[in-house]
Design brief:
Length: 424
Amino acid sequence: MGETLFTNVKIIDGEGGAPVAGEVLVSGNRIKTVARDGDSIDAPDAERIDGEGRTLMPGLVEAHAHISFCNTASLEALGDLPPEEHTLETMKFARVMLDQGFTSIFSAAAAKPRLDVVIRNAIDAGDIVGPRMRAASPEMTPTAGLGDVRLRHMHRETFAIPCDGADEFLKCAREMVREGVDTLKINPSGDEFIPFARAHETVMNEAEVAAVCEVGRSRQINVACHARSAESVKMCLRQGANVLYHCTLSDEEALDMLEAEKDRVFVAPTIGMAHITGQGEGKDYGIDYDHPVALFFRLEGEKGVENMKELKKRGVRVLPGGDYGFAWNPIGTNARDMEHFVNLLDFTPLEAITAATKFGGQLMQMDVGLVKEGFLADLLLVDGDPSKDVSILQDADRLAAIMKDGAFHKTPGAAAGAGSIAAE
Ligand SMILES: [Zn+2]
């Protein structure tokens, strides 16, 4: 792999500063040199890309990805998909994420045990096209928890594996380690669309959470928690989980505990799904503005917005990532979360970009998320200035180029995928 020199670009490096004019040299799969304030880079052998004044920024990171949720409108329909079709569908959605400028995704659960692992491995091997991935297990959930769709008289499945008691959680977590996941996912709280496990209810007990966290700790892998209730947040923090999703109903003590661990933990509120459901965008699927679930989401959302503003103020890393993977919140529209952060959580566009890039890279535990010398070359060339209007990142046509690992997924002036493996 040779060298690529981006000239005549405005650089948003992901650290939070305003765009600056400059040049960036990529050598192999890493960023070799960043020149700012009109300095130029001498690289006579590099392929030169004239940015024509566009913005060059880090590729986006999705902190709560569900590429195997297939934009389903019902949890049971997801379970009905056979593994073979499901794998092909997931492969398709991995590509969709990269087409939309997400060069890394941190999975917040796979819908079957090996889906994320197989897709991650195939991407890494260069067999299929997609972003860098942290692969997750399905959601380990207790009987009568979020994702337990069984009926008394029949077996049914969705994105969860029901477990009861510390021993079953322990065994399931170890099996997932054996299958190669990077992240163990648990559902210690309920959710507003589950009548028997609401968001404020804590449905796993401490021993069950501890069992999974022990596996995470001993195997050095992530434990990510669906934690809406205040008690579930505290329980997961006490046991050492590092990725806290939602945290919407945190109380003062939970906020204090999150602040105390701000250098270790990541919070992603998944505001996208909750917000638009509350606003009635699920109406074509039976959840209109007046539906009780929409009302519950609005009430939870109010508290969640208040809490996220507070966590940001206290220096906790709050990341975009909005549970994209359902019919009215489809995969590929993930960049909308940054607009929600600006409109609802009082982030500036640059703060939202930093959350989706720098903090995202830290969540991935990879050298990604910054335009910085030595970092992996995951870059977007954007038509326009997202530091003024972050919503332009939702429009794939504004992504003039997408580079992952030093290679163009979308070459400047070409359609997405030109030059990529699948197009060859
Ligand atoms: Zn989720």
